[in-house]
Design goal:
Layout (H helix, E strand, L loop, with lengths): L5 H12 L3 H10 L2 H15 L6 H8 E8 L6 E8 L8 H5 L2 E6 L2 E9 L4 H29 L1
Antiparallel strand pairs: 1-2, 3-4
Helix pairs in contact: 1-6, 2-6, 3-4, 3-6
Length: 149
């Protein structure tokens, strides 16, 4: 998430204050993850192919974590999304762009690329951006209030 220049400044002040201020700030930022994960899972069910069970498989496989960098010049929050496959991670970027590679049923050594609807991840992020921005504002305001005393 970008566009929050005060994030680095507030994080720096929290770091200088010591104690539990910075861990509490991270804890607040981590609360952005569950609504975004739920939106991505719902989008997978709605947009990805249901035949063969792919939509349901992706719904179950999606994992999301919040990575927060609270350095002054590098401050930012990233939602890292992964989806487990058989033995390796699924390529969410390719699936989001409309390309799904999979083995041909009955011929596991032969792989094909299938077109799927684009934007299952993008749509979910667009849907939850207002919630994420609201959560960021709440965290920054709460941390600023704590620092002021």
């Amino acid at each position: 998430m970008s566009g929050w220049p005060e994030l680095g400044e507030v994080a720096r002040a929290a770091r200088l204050a010591g104690g539990k201020v910075l861990p509490e700030m991270r804890k607040g930022l981590n609360k952005m993850g569950p609504p975004a994960k739920k939106a991505v899972q719902e989008s997978a069910l709605a947009k990805l192919p249901k035949s063969g069970g792919f939509a349901a498989t992706m719904h179950r496989a999606i994992r999301m974590r919040v990575k927060s960098d609270l350095g002054l010049s590098t401050a930012g929050v990233t939602l890292v999304t992964t989806a487990a496959g058989r033995g390796r991670l699924r390529h969410i970027g390719a699936i989001n762009s409309g390309r799904l590679r999979h083995p041909v049923y009955g011929h596991r050594t032969r792989w094909v690329t299938q077109r799927v609807p684009e934007g299952f991840w993008d749509d979910a992020m667009d849907k939850t951006s207002d919630v994420a921005h609201q959560r960021m504002r709440e965290v920054l305001d709460a941390t600023t209030r704590t620092l002021k005393g």
